[in-house]
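User: Could you check the structure of this?
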Amino acid sequence: MASPAPVNAFADQPGSPSGAVHAARQGSLLRAPLSSFIGREQEIDEITRLLQRPDVRLVTLTGPGGVGKTRLALQVADRLRPAFPEGVATVSLAPIRDHELALSAIAQTLGLRDTSDVPIAQQLADALHDRTMLLVLDNFEQVVDMAPGIAALLAACPQLKVLVTSRFVLHVSGEHDVAVGPLKLPPINPNLPLSTISDSPAVQLFVQRAHAASSDFTLSESNAATVIEICQSVDGLPLAIELAAARVAHLPLPTLLARLDRRLPLLTGGARDQPARQQTIRNTIAWSYDLLTPAEQSLFRRLSVFVGGFTLEAAEAISADSEIDILDTIGSLADKSLIRIASRVTGESRYLMLESVRQFGVELLEAEGEADATRAAHAAHFVAFVDAVAPGFDGATTVEQRAALRADLDNYRAALDWFYQRGDGAGLLRLTRPLVVFWQNFGPWTECIAWTQRALSIEQPPSLAQGEMLIHLGASAGYQGDFAQGKRWLTQARDVGMAISAPHIESIAQTVLGAQLVDQRCYAEGESCITDALIKARQPNHPFAEALALAHLGVAVWGLGRIDEAESHLERARTIGSAIDALLPGTVAYRYLGLIAAESGDSRRAAERLRESRDFDQFEELPLTRALPNLATLSVACGLHELAVQLLGAADTVNQITRFVPAWPERGAQERALAQARTILGESATAAAFRAGQTMTHDEIWVVIDTVFAAAEKPGSSGAAERATSVSQLTPREREVLRLIVDGRSNSEIGERLFISSRTAQTHVTNILAKLGVSTRTQAAARAVQDGLD
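Assistant: Sure, the predicted structure tokens are below.
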């Protein structure tokens, strides 16, 4: 028997449904958005390139509800229309729950006649077999069981390509998953110019939608910081930004920001022409939650207790009483865009819930009566974790330990608050004691002070833990310039040491008291105080206390101008600290030995000592508060005056963020470096370099740091010309930039060519001039030609 003739769905019959397909073939069945599209240029380019590859037939855009998958897919489809001469069509599957009806919905959108004697899948395959078309399937998550049918359709139609939006990955052969994340947010930087802030897609979306709600709303210097905080508070999620911006007509920005702490009730009132699930954040998340299995729903609720992310080990700790397969279920929740892999810390995957999603989970956790038990398990896990990973009293940690500790700061806060709200003093003390050491060394100081005060507010007899915590409290207050409060806490710590017969606690407290006198330029008083502390440290033969006292004694006598004596004390502190593996005394000693060497003109020795201080081991804000000004002093010693001023500008921004108050005698070295640079550069150039430094990114700062160390560690005299690097010794990126300098390109043109910001391009140019020992771009171009730049 002959097989039936294929259905010709594209027959152009007057009045037939195939007219819609004809329209698709001639043009497009794309839905036209009524509001403008903002941002996502990089994603549009990536997805467009992917779909233009011959070997790519199926692309799935995955992400949480409200992230903007549909709008992104429509933009991509619109850009690709010329590549698909026989049509681009969009099929919304949002109203459909039965996967068997989904193929019919596709057929209906394309205008196919559904006949009873031929299965709809066969009709689609016959109709699209030789058609060069792009099919956009929107909101695929609730009909995900239809995925094999889409794979079969693609196999039958070699010219067809499919772009899917879904909260779930389809898991079929040939699928290319593209995760759609939140909109890009501007960095937190109090000196960021308004033009840079307004370039952020998240800020642009907020401003546009806020202006639509209130025509007099504009972004300004006075409200920019609050707008950034609002966008960060809602995770850069486009739907949440739009819903928040709609409130501008009725709420002042500060009030809106404050109310976002409980964002789900606030973020309502979306456009009425949108589906109900997209009119509030809660409805959007509930849509995804309702599609989960009972086991997935249970784990989702429990995972909402984590603030700022979690590891697999942590997830297992809060689910030890369940029979859920944690690894598989977390993988499923990630596939369904309710959690995402945020990063890898020390080789272990770390997962994250967007804050709006997490708050929804917390509501469910409380409604199911599971909150207390889950929070107790959460707190117990982090007490055990911090006990194992946090540094000892001397602050010694590895880079990996610091990364692991920093990753869970928000979880510690949640656990501390849990203990505090329950009045669990023992739990609060047990978690605070190891954390206070980390906070005091790496920040944040204000929070360190707040939690330590809460822990110490619980009545208890004098103890070693109490003495240690009071020392860290006093030190943290001093870093912020509150020397009066620091003195009160350090005096209490010294009294505790006397009460429990712990001379090393007395010694360390008195050393820090003396160091704070030195910080205020009271060098003689500081020397006297630290000398007494050194005597106490040697009585019980406590090497850590002795090394710390020697290090700070060296700083005091350096401030008094007794350089040789200062170096002797610092070297002795370094030796003792190294023998017992104590980080803090060595860090102080190397830091000041580096400064002394830099001011004496020995740049190689200065660079060696500053590296050994370990201030540059990690790229974190608090170590940078001292590292950058010290490196500025080294920059001046190397003749890199513009870079020195940029480093001081960058340090100024970091200090504003951390609330660090520069102290003496380092401050004196910093002022001397700035004065020397101003003499060489002139007032105008110095001011410009300082402003440039204030707005540098961390990556740009690190480029400068590398440049200064490279110049300082180069053999030769201190003269810039004799230290000049050859073109062949520049980094590959610097040689790329130099080629564009030779071509006469501006910073903005260099940035466009290399896909970097014009500011980063400027940083590279400055560093190239410094390395080549020239002062102008023309001279740099001449050197490039002379050295035969390839």
